[in-house]
């Protein structure tokens, strides 16, 4: 018998021995094999994590010298070992996501972000009972968000941003009791916001086609919500006073929508730091009550349809550092303190109908609207000074 044949037989014998005596649960190994098989081999670079997945070795064995060098984390305290984390490198893998991933029942983290996965998101993912974070960010997944996604009970972070998902948001999102962070930005989602998960900290659904008004019923009980990022949608109507009174709210970005009015009540206490409402269709006056939010340091109402004077209260607000009111029809004389060097406010008051906005100030570098346009905005008469 030749030496080459002997070596081949030895290799096959060793492979069979490894698989028959695997440390990892066989169903976990089968799920990993199905996961890799659903990815186009031509999109698996030689230097990548998946290239090191060689099933002649046990996925959870140590040390990981040549096989399964990255992409997996296992628990070695159980017998057999179980896969607890599947985190791929952004190597440009392309393929569908195998529904058999749902057999990795001890999976805690699943992260496939920054690749080229396509097709629908498997509904079977929701049967992963221990999953705490799920990121399919920056891929090419399409179709609706599976309604079964709301069956997750342990999930704390859900990130589907940067795909081509369409349709409405699942109606019973609020059943995801442990969800803290939700990011569905840069998709093709439509419709209005349903009732949101009660323990949410961050809500990010930027650059979709959400429409309708923001209703208090969607935000009821969200006492921990800190960040709302809903810019670049088609939200409309009035932003009512309850919204800014959410007790933990810190950052709001609703720019590039179609909001027409904003109602602001004085707060008793507030953590609100930054408000971005630029590029809407907001009419009326600059909301004076925003100046009473104690922590507010950044405010943008640029390119709306606001009229009247800039409230003097904004000139008394010491924490205010960024103020963008350009692109409206504001008139009168802006607070003199803005130009005294005492406040350190940056931003823009240009492209309005203001009088006495000194060109020596960066706030006034953008010129004011022509008088004819300002007269037309105020009914043909001379703009009212305040």
TrEMBL record:
What protein name does the entry list?
A: Leucine-rich repeat-containing N-terminal plant-type domain-containing protein
PANTHER family the record matches: LEUCINE-RICH REPEAT (LRR) FAMILY PROTEIN, LRR RECEPTOR-LIKE SERINE_THREONINE-PROTEIN KINASE GSO1
Q: Which positions are tagged coiled coil?
A: none
* Position of the signal peptide: 1-20
Which superkingdom heads the taxonomic lineage of this protein's source? Eukaryota
Gene Ontology CC annotations of this record? membrane
Q: Where in the cell is it found?
A: Membrane
**Leucine-rich repeat-containing N-terminal plant-type domain location:** 26-66
Q: Which organism is it from?
A: Rhododendron griersonianum
InterPro entries the UniProt entry points to: Leu-rich_rpt (IPR001611), Leu-rich_rpt_4 (IPR025875), Leu-rich_rpt_typical-subtyp (IPR003591), LRR_dom_sf (IPR032675), LRR_N_plant-typ (IPR013210), RLP29 (IPR053213)
Its GO biological process terms? defense response; response to other organism
SMART domains for this protein: LRR_TYP (SM00369)
Fetch the PROSITE patterns from UniProt: LRR
What does the UniProt keyword field contain? Leucine-rich repeat, Membrane, Repeat, Signal, Transmembrane, Transmembrane helix
């Amino acid at each position: 018998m030749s030496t080459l044949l002997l070596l081949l037989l030895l290799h096959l014998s060793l492979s069979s021995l490894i698989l028959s005596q695997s440390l990892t649960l066989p169903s976990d190994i089968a799920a990993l094999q199905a996961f890799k098989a659903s990815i186009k081999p031509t999109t698996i670079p030689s230097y990548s994590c998946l290239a090191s997945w060689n099933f002649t070795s046990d996925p959870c064995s140590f040390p990981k010298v040549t096989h399964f060098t990255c992409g997996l984390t296992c628990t070695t305290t159980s017998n057999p070992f179980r896969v607890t984390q599947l985190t791929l490198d952004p190597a440009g893998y392309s393929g569908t996501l195998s529904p058999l991933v749902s057999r990795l029942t001890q999976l805690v983290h699943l992260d496939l972000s920054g690749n080229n996965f396509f097709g629908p998101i498997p509904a079977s993912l929701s049967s992963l009972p221990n999953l705490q974070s799920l990121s399919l960010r920056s891929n090419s997944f399409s179709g609706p968000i599976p309604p079964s996604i709301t069956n997750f009970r342990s999930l704390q972070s859900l990130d589907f941003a940067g795909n081509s998902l369409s349709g409405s948001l699942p109606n019973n999102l609020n059943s995801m009791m442990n969800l803290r962070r939700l990011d569905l930005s840069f998709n093709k989602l439509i419709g209005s916001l349903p009732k949101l998960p009660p323990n949410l900290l961050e809500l990010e659904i930027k650059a979709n086609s959400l429409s309708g008004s923001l209703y208090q019923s969607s935000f009821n009980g969200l006492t921990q919500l800190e960040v709302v990022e809903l810019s670049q949608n088609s939200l409309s109507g009035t932003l009512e006073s309850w919204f800014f009174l959410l007790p933990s709210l810190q950052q709001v970005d609703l720019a590039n929508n179609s909001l027409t009015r904003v109602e602001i009540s004085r707060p008793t206490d507030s953590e609100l730091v930054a408000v971005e409402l630029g590029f809407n269709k907001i009419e009326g006056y600059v909301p004076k009550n925003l100046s009473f939010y104690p922590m507010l340091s950044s405010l943008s109402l640029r390119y709306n349809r606001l009229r009247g004077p800039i409230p003097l209260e904004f000139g008394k607000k010491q924490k205010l550092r960024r103020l963008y009111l350009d692109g409206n029809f504001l008139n009168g004389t802006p607070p003199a303190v803005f130009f005294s060097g005492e406040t350190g406010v940056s931003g823009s008051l240009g492209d309005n109908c203001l009088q006495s906005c000194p060109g020596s100030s960066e706030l006034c570098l953008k010129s004011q609207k022509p008088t004819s346009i300002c007269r037309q905005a105020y009914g043909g008469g001379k703009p009212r000074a305040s």
